[in-house]
Design brief:
This protein is mostly helical and 231 residues long. The protein has seven helices and three strands. Helix 1 runs antiparallel to helix 7 and helix 4 packs across helix 7.
C-alpha cells in the first residue's frame, strides 16, 4: 500500500493531528484561564510580585522592565532582566502576579545554579541550529529520496526535541518556586488565591507538554517514513 493515498498522509492524520489539536486546546485554555483570573485581584502588581519573589530568595540584582505585547513575559539571562507585558507589569490580578512570579522563578533558577536550566542553556545553540535545519533537510531528503539528508534531518529534529524535553522540568520548577514565593511573601494570602495562581501556571505548563507531544509525534512519523524508504 503506498504511503500517500490520493495526497493524504495517514500517519499525519492519525498520529500528529491529534497532538496538534491538543496543542490548540492547551493554547485556548491558557488564554481563557488567564482571562478568568484577571478578574480576581490582590494588593500587588505583577512587578511588585516579581520583586518580592526575588527578594524572598535572596536575589537583588535582577531588573524588572515593561515590554509591549500580550503574554510576552520572559526572563532574559543575558541581560539579567525580567520583562513583563502590559497585561502583567502594572496589573493586580491573580493571573498577573502568577505570571510575574513564574518569570522571577526563572531568574532564581539562574541565581541558584539550578542544574536543568544550565543544561538547557548549554545545549541551546546546537538545538537551535537543529530546529532551523531539520525540516529543510527532511523535505529535501523525502522529495529526492536522499536517505543521508533524511537521517541528518531526523538527528537535528531529535536535538530540538531534546531541548523541549529539558524545558519541561525547568518550567515546572519555575512555577513551583513562584507559588512558594507568592505564599512566603504574603502576596497571595488565602488558599483560593493560591489555587487561582496554580491554575494559571498549570494551564501555561500544559502548552509546553502539548508542544513536546506534537514534536514527538512528528519525529515518530519521520522515523516510520524513513524506515519505509529503506525497504
Amino acid at each position: 500500500m503506498p504511503y500517500f493515498y490520493y495526497g493524504i498522509d495517514p500517519l499525519y492524520l492519525y498520529l500528529v493531528l491529534p497532538a496538534i489539536v491538543l496543542s490548540l486546546i492547551a493554547q485556548i485554555n491558557v488564554k481563557s484561564t488567564f482571562s478568568k483570573y484577571s478578574n480576581y485581584h490582590c494588593n500587588y502588581t505583577g512587578a511588585d510580585a516579581a520583586k518580592r519573589v526575588l527578594e524572598s530568595n535572596g536575589v537583588y540584582d535582577v531588573k524588572i522592565e515593561r515590554v509591549s505585547g500580550n503574554l510576552t513575559d520572559h526572563y532574559d539571562p543575558k541581560t539579567n532582566v525580567i520583562r513583563l507585558s502590559d497585561a502583567v507589569y502594572s496589573a493586580t490580578s491573580i493571573s498577573a502576579v502568577g505570571v510575574a512570579a513564574h518569570e522571577a522563578g526563572h531568574a532564581v533558577q539562574y541565581a541558584k545554579g539550578y542544574s536543568p536550566i544550565k543544561v538547557r542553556t548549554a545545549i541551546y545553540p546546537v538545538c537551535n541550529i537543529g530546529s532551523q535545519l531539520s525540516m529543510p533537510l527532511l523535505l529535501i531528503g523525502l522529495l529526492f529520496n536522499y536517505s543521508f539528508l533524511m537521517n541528518l534531518g531526523i538527528i537535528f529534529f531529535s536535538a530540538a526535541l531534546v531541548f523541549q524535553l529539558v524545558t519541561l522540568p525547568v518550567e515546572f520548577n519555575a512555577s513551583k518556586r513562584a507559588l512558594v514565593g507568592l505564599r512566603d511573601s504574603s502576596i497571595l494570602l488565602d488558599d483560593g488565591e493560591i489555587k487561582g495562581a496554580r491554575k494559571v501556571l498549570s494551564a501555561a505548563a500544559l502548552t509546553y507538554i502539548a508542544a513536546f507531544l506534537v514534536s514527538l509525534t512528528q519525529l515518530l512519523r519521520f522515523l516510520i517514513i524513513a524506515n519505509r524508504r529503506r525497504r
